[in-house]
């Protein structure tokens, strides 16, 4: 059993100091993605796995450890760098860092597979969705937990035998679940390529001792019973799907959900009903964004950096104002190409559910900062690409708006978004590469406890090909409260 302190699950904002999270290091399955299947598996391109691991993701892990579990990393950078086999970063290696604060999903899954009944249930479930043969199922059941974890995640045995496709998107742990105060919403993916990872997550959260405090507090998305009576072509149009990149815990009383290419309004409505019934939050805002690959989740177009600072794609910031200005010309027959957002907020008042509309995204974000988070400072917007054409859209594509906050005002982004970095500088932030920061931490020139208003840049040539930033690559389990 884990120590009770290690099993506390609580997230009330996007910007409280991060204390514990789940990650998944790039596994060998990413190196098996082929061009003909890349988009089916939700990748934009094939990646060079060794570069992604050694030159990019390993730096991400080191930064996380320095902020969340410094005893695992401080004073060890030279020896880690000299190691040729990356043993420190490999979950299956005896020399793995094995932190209780920076938690590897693979190890959680291996733990639950040590229970015979869970192993049998999960193997049967995976074999059903992957349409494995009975003989293959028996082979899986004969494997050790370590061997089975490899197959369930990568689809491949240690001898190189393929059983089923990899789940390369598991690197984006944000999409398997979201902590809402002391509850957890289990996500329901929109694409078949992510079904297996969702199933693995379900077994981990319901059965691992680390999540003992979540018993009775896990919220699942279920299909409406009428769904099964619809013709198959109509069923596909009314799936209840929700992914973590579309869910933000912006304040203790307030959850935001995006309606997008990946998250349906039916699922969002179901979540509102369940959260309000249990009084977990008193306010849920739905933000409907264009259903297109460019903006697959709301966290690809905006994230929060401080209680009063947001980074976002400017073209989606004031769509309501633009629509009102151009309305007269539209009536006369002119068509404009500006994309639209619809923002509707549902809230509990006097025991009843009421709703109101926000005209612009920036109006909503300002209201969150001022009303929900009690910010005394003016609200600032940092725009992707410094709001200079065409860099806003170019850098949004490579995750300029997808930042993970490790403490208020200190966030991790990608180094390739130069114009967005300039915008952060203008807004009063320091810019530093992850490698430079690690050296300064080792020399005690800077400290995770004292650093402020800083954007930490990860190398991202390969990571950005997967279409997800540091916000996507994290599932926060515990953050400090802001007030």
Plain-language structure description:
The chain is an alpha/beta fold and 483 residues long. The chain has a single domain (4-479), classed as L-arginine/glycine Amidinotransferase, Chain A, CATH 3.75.10. It is built from 14 helices and 18 strands. The strands form 5 sheets. The chain has a 5-stranded mixed β-sheet, with helices on both faces. Strands 14-15-17-16 form a 4-stranded mixed β-sheet, sandwiched between helices. The longest helix has 20 residues, at 49-68. The radius of gyration is 22 Å and the shape is globular. The mean pLDDT is 91.
Strand order of the largest sheet: 6-7-8-11-12
CATH topology: L-arginine/glycine Amidinotransferase, Chain A
Count structural domains.
1
- How many β-strand runs? 18
Q: CATH class, anyone?
A: Alpha Beta
CATH superfamily: L-arginine/glycine Amidinotransferase, Chain A
Uncertain segments are none
Mean pLDDT: 91
β-strand amount? 15-25%
Radius of gyration: 22 Å
Biggest β-sheet description: 5 strands, mixed
Number of helices: 14
In CATH, the architecture is 5-stranded Propeller
Helix content: 25-40%
Q: What is the SS-derived class?
A: alpha/beta
Shape, principal axes of CA atoms: globular
* N- and C-termini, Cα separation: 31 Å
Summarize the structure.
By secondary structure, the protein is an alpha/beta fold. The chain is 31% helix and 18% strand.
């Amino acid at each position: 059993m884990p120590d009770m302190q290690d099993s506390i699950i609580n997230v009330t904002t996007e910007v409280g100091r991060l204390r514990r999270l789940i990650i998944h290091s790039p596994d060998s399955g990413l190196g098996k993605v082929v061009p003909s299947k890349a988009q089916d598996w939700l990748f934009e391109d094939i990646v060079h796995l060794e570069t992604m691991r050694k030159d990019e993701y390993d730096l991400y892990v080191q930064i996380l450890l320095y902020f969340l579990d410094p005893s695992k990393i401080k004073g060890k950078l030279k020896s880690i760098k000299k190691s040729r086999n990356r043993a420190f970063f490999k979950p299956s290696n005896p020399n793995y860092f094995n932190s209780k604060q920076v938690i590897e999903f693979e190890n959680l899954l291996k733990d639950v597979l040590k229970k015979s009944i869970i192993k049998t249930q999960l193997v049967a479930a995976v074999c059903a969705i992957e349409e494995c043969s009975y003989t293959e199922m028996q082979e899986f059941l004969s494997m050790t937990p370590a061997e089975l974890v490899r197959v369930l995640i990568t689809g491949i045995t240690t001898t190189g035998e393929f059983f089923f496709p990899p789940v390369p998107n598991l690197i984006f742990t944000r999409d398997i679940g979201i902590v809402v105060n002391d509850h957890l919403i289990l996500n329901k993916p929109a694409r078949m390529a992510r079904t297996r990872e969702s199933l693995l997550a379900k077994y981990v959260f319901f059965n691992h001792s680390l999540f003992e405090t979540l018993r009775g507090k896990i919220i699942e998305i279920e299909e409406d019973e009428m769904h099964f009576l619809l013709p198959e072509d109509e069923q596909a149009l009314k799936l209840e799907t929700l992914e973590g990149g579309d869910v933000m815990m912006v304040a203790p009383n307030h959850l935001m959900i995006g309606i997008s290419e990946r998250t349906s309004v039916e699922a969002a409505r179901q979540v509102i009903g369940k959260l309000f019934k249990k009084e977990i939050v008193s306010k849920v805002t739905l933000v409907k964004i264009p259903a297109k690959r460019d903006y697959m989740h709301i966290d690809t177009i905006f994230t929060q950096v401080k209680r009063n600072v947001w980074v976002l794609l400017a073209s989606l910031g004031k769509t309501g104002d633009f629509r009102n200005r151009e309305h007269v010309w539209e009536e006369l027959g002119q068509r404009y190409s500006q994309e639209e957002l619809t923002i509707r907020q549902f809230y509990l008042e006097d025991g009843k559910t009421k709703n109101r509309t926000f005209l612009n995204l920036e109006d909503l974000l300002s209201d969150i900062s001022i009303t929900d988070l009690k910010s005394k400072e003016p609200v600032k917007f940092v725009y992707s690409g410094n709001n200079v054409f065409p860099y806003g859209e170019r850098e949004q594509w490579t995750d300029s708006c997808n930042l993970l906050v490790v403490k208020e005002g200190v966030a991790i982004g990608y180094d390739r978004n130069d114009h967005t970095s300039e915008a952060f500088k203008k807004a009063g932030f320091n810019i530093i590469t992850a490698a430079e920061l690690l050296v300064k931490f080792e020399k005690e020139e800077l400290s995770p406890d004292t650093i402020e208003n800083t954007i930490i840049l990860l190398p991202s040539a390969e990571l950005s090909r997967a279409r997800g930033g540091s916000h996507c690559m994290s599932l926060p389990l515990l953050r400090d409260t802001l007030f």
